[in-house]
Every structure is written in structure tokens, then in C-alpha cells.
Design a protein that fits this description.
This protein has 310 residues and is an alpha/beta fold. Helices cover 38% and strands 14% of the residues. A five-stranded mixed sheet has the order 7-8-11-10-9. It has a four-stranded mixed sheet with strand order 1-6-5-4. Helix 3 links the parallel strand 2 and strand 3. Helix 8 packs parallel to helix 11.
Length: 310
């Protein structure tokens, strides 16, 4: 399948470029899955486009809540690009737009939406593709040459061209992407199992666990389950804040997808702007971006923080 990739200066720009690449004259109506911001998706409600959202397994909760607000004309009833995805494309003629910022595709990918039939894939190169917390970038990949030409025009017209050094940093990250993703996934699986067994944890969200609602779909479409794990503390928000404040190997920070492990409280940090809305996350939620450190050390770090709770 012929493919084209267009590099831009950020993940937000990559989503915006896709949204603006369509107009009323387009031969297809676009589908938008914003990988990084509700704002991009919300902005599309005022653009001359109709919105169809395809959510990947690790973002299913967010998009299930976002869909009613967007008033999308067609809602995909799955959390990943599975059988209903093909039916949606055949019946509607709309262009599916998948996001793979977290389930980063590799040569033998964790998930590869283009191979599953998507026409557009948006990557945040800031995350796993770069992998070292030192670059900001985005990539739009497509198998549609006409769309690729429109995206290249927008890349040039709006000045969203990454610097040579930023491109070098992403290319450097790609050289170790395969081995890093194997380690991210392996460590996350160990941590998810340990968290599930801890008495202070009420619920663990990780698609590698059989208890996850989209585990079977993930197992069919992914070679690994990624490095993102979130969990809810039984003690509510106070317990969650206590945990994120007392880890030593996990650094308290908002980003994700790099070699070092990060931890955050979404309700106070990444998702604070959603407070009081239908998109509000549980106050007891803790999110971990699991790095490539020793798995036993990471489990011990989280366990020690949880053991502090009364």
C-alpha cells in the first residue's frame, strides 16, 4: 500500500492539519480522532465538516464521553479499529481517521491503523517516537495521495515544518523504538498485575489485563499492550495525591512515552480543564507512563507509595 508521511511541529498541528485538509468540496467527508486535545475536536464542530471519531483502545473512555458533545452524525461503537470499523467505512463512505499516539505502530506494530484500513493516522512524535522527552513533533501518515498533497500544502502554508535538529531527534528515537516498546509493554504488564493485587487499588485500567473491557480486541490487533497504566485508589482523591507525591523512581510530570517512568494525577493536571464537565475523570485516578527501568524496582516504588496509605 503506497503511504506518505508528513512531519509537522507538533501533535496538535497534525490533528489540525487533517481537519483543515477537508472542505465541503472534498470527495469524502472526514473522520476526526483527536489524539491530544479535546479542543481540536471541539473546533471541528464549527468547521464545514462532519465528524466521525475512531478511538483506539487506550482512549476509549475519553472518546465515549466526547462523542455526545460533538453531536457526531455517526458513532463508531467500538474502542478500536475492529470489524465495525470496516462496516462503517463501507456503509458511509466516510474516511476513517485513526490515532496511534499511544499504541505506537512498529514494523510488526503494536497497532497499525493503516493496515487495518484507516486512511489517516496521526502520531505525536513527542511521545514514543522520540522517546526521550527532548523533542516536540507530530506526524500525519496516509495512504491517500490526494490527501497527502493537501496536507503537504498545509504543512508549507502554515509554517508547521519541524527543524532539522528536531527531525534528527525523532529519527534517533526511531532506531530504538522496537526494543523500547517491548520493554515498555513488558514493564507495564508486570505493574498492572501488581496493582491489581494491591488492597489500596480499586480498579486498574490496562488493555493487557483480561478484566479490561477491550482486552480481546486489543489482543487481536496489537502485538503488545503499551506502556500506559492507570488505576483508581480506594481512598479517593486524597489517596491518589498521596501516591503521586511519594514515588521515587516515577517522576511527577504530565508527559508520557519516554524512557523514564512518569506519574501524574489527571484530575489536578492533564485533565484539570475538564472538571465539572461530562469529560471529568475520577478524582481517585492515577496515570503512569511506564518507562524502561527495572520492572521490580518500579513495582517496589509504587507499592511503597501505596503502602503509606491508611
Amino acid at each position: 500500500m503506497p503511504q506518505a508521511s508528513i512531519a509537522v511541529i507538533g501533535g496538535m498541528i497534525s490533528s489540525t492539519a487533517v481537519a483543515f485538509s477537508f472542505s465541503r468540496r472534498s470527495r469524502v467527508e472526514p473522520a476526526l480522532a483527536s489524539p491530544l486535545a479535546i479542543g481540536v475536536a471541539a473546533a471541528c464542530t464549527v468547521l464545514p465538516v462532519r465528524v466521525l471519531i475512531v478511538a483506539t483502545v487506550l482512549q476509549s473512555t475519553l472518546f465515549r464521553e466526547l462523542l455526545p458533545l460533538l453531536g457526531a452524525p455517526f458513532v463508531l461503537g467500538v474502542a478500536m479499529l475492529s470489524v465495525p470499523f470496516w462496516r462503517a467505512r463501507r456503509d458511509t463512505g466516510k474516511t476513517p481517521h485513526g490515532n496511534a499516539a499511544v499504541a505506537t505502530p512498529l514494523v510488526n506494530g503494536l497497532q497499525n491503523p493503516l493496515a487495518l484500513g484507516a486512511d489517516v493516522v496521526v502520531h505525536s512524535a513527542t511521545k514514543y517516537l522520540g522517546g526521550h522527552s527532548d523533542v516536540v513533533g507530530g506526524i500525519v501518515a496516509t495512504s491517500d495521495e490526494e490527501l497527502a498533497q493537501r496536507l503537504r500544502y498545509l504543512q508549507n502554508a502554515v509554517g508547521a515544518v519541524p527543524s532539522p535538529f528536531d527531525c534528527y531527534l525523532v529519527l534517533r528515537g526511531l532506531k530504538t523504538l522496537d526494543v523500547r516498546m517491548e520493554r515498555h509493554s513488558a514493564n507495564a504488564a508486570v505493574i498492572a498485575e501488581a496493582l491489581q493485587a494491591h488492597p489500596q487499588v480499586e480498579r486498574v485500567r490496562y488493555p493487557g489485563l483480561e478484566s479490561h473491557p477491550t482486552h480481546r480486541v486489543a489482543a487481536r490487533q496489537m502485538s503488545g499492550f503499551g506502556g500506559m497504566v492507570s488505576f483508581e485508589c480506594r481512598g479517593g482523591e486524597a489517596a491518589a495525591l498521596e501516591v503521586v507525591s511519594h514515588t521515587e523512581l516515577f517522576t511527577l510530570a504530565e508527559s508520557l512515552g519516554a524512557v523514564e517512568s512518569l506519574i501524574e494525577h489527571p484530575g489536578r493536571m492533564t485533565h484539570a480543564s475538564a472538571a465539572g464537565s461530562p469529560l471529568e475523570v475520577p478524582a481517585s485516578l492515577v496515570r503512569c507512563s511506564v518507562g524502561i527501568e527495572d520492572a521490580a524496582d518500579l513495582v517496589a516504588d509504587l507499592t511503597a507509595a501505596l503502602d503509606r496509605l491508611p
